[in-house]
Amino acid sequence: MSKHAMHSCPDCGMEFGSAWAVTNHQRTCPVRQSHELRSIQENLEWKRGRIERWLHESYASAARAFAAYHNGHIEEARRLHQWVAEDFESTIAELTALSEGVAQAGSSHYPRLAKLRGDVKLHLEQAQDLRLILETLQRDYGQGA
Ligand SMILES: [Zn+2]
Hints:
By secondary structure, this protein is mainly alpha-helical.
């Protein structure tokens, strides 16, 4: 680590110039001291992680479905297409709930929560793109079932 490396509080994400300053801060860190705040934050992060994995897998499956349809591997294409379509609406509902949860937790301005808010905003945009991709699959190749 360089001497300019930042040290951040693992609980709230605030950054400090030294490990000592972090230790000093932690005595009064509101997130560290509030079990409730910490568990809300961890719960939201856990949900976000699941949605992020689903988005990655869905993008990959949609791309592979297009390729498989294009190359005449219809059975494989349908399987991939269906996989994306199957959980789409329920995961979008989870993402919407997550977004609301993050907004409710958002009266605080800690960096860790701000990062979570930014990530969720990005996932909402990615989900919108994925919806367009899925709609294109449905339009060109049917419902995938
Ligand atoms: Zn802190």
